Structure to design on (181 residues):
């Protein structure tokens, strides 16, 4: 895995959402490092990525309420255990479950395993509420996929909060997850 700090030379061969992700970072003049790799399907797959990028990749979960009227993108440390009840009480939404593949494609333009905060580029109507675990907000750098799990990217958390999210028209709610077994 070779780290790169410029736009991929083969950008036209990447998915539309990958192209949009890199273009956004470039337009905002955000410094980033990315790598290409085999599909990262689990947080365990991200351990080597963490080492190469010197960042802890975050876990990205797309959730919905029982009625499928409210959708959430939860960003949390990859080593934390997700407890539905713990999050539900903080956002006043009972019976959270994982969103369907179809909902992920429609709302964020991603497939399962490729969820990313950069998928909010597709959510121009604000149907997805972004939730970020407070522990991630304390990190200097943020790691995610550019909407496809065969690449990973690292950039400053401050750039995410002050440049990327406002450009995409999204705000976030900070949540505090203990993530204990």
């Amino acid at each position: 895995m070779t780290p790169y700090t410029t736009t991929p030379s083969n950008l036209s061969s990447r998915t539309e959402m990958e192209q949009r992700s890199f273009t956004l970072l470039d337009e905002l003049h955000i410094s980033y490092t990315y790598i290409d790799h085999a599909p990262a399907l689990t947080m365990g797959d991200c351990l080597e990525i963490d080492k190469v990028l010197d960042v802890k990749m975050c876990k990205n979960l797309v959730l919905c309420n029982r009625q499928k009227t409210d959708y959430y993108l939860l960003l949390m440390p990859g080593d934390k255990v997700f407890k539905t009840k713990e999050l539900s009480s903080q956002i006043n939404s009972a019976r959270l479950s994982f969103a369907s593949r179809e909902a992920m494609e429609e709302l964020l333009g991603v497939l399962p395993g490729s969820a990313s905060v950069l998928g909010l580029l597709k959510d121009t109507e604000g149907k997805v509420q972004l939730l970020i675990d407070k522990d991630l907000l304390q990190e200097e750098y943020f790691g995610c996929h550019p909407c496809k799990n065969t690449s990973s990217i690292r950039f400053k958390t401050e750039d995410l909060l002050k440049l990327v999210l406002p450009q995409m028209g999204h705000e976030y709610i900070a949540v505090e997850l203990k993530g204990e077994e």
Remarks:
- The longest strand covers residues 58-64.
- The two ends are 33 Å apart (CA to CA).
- The CA atoms of residues 65 and 96 lie 5 Å apart.
- The chain has a mean pLDDT of 92.
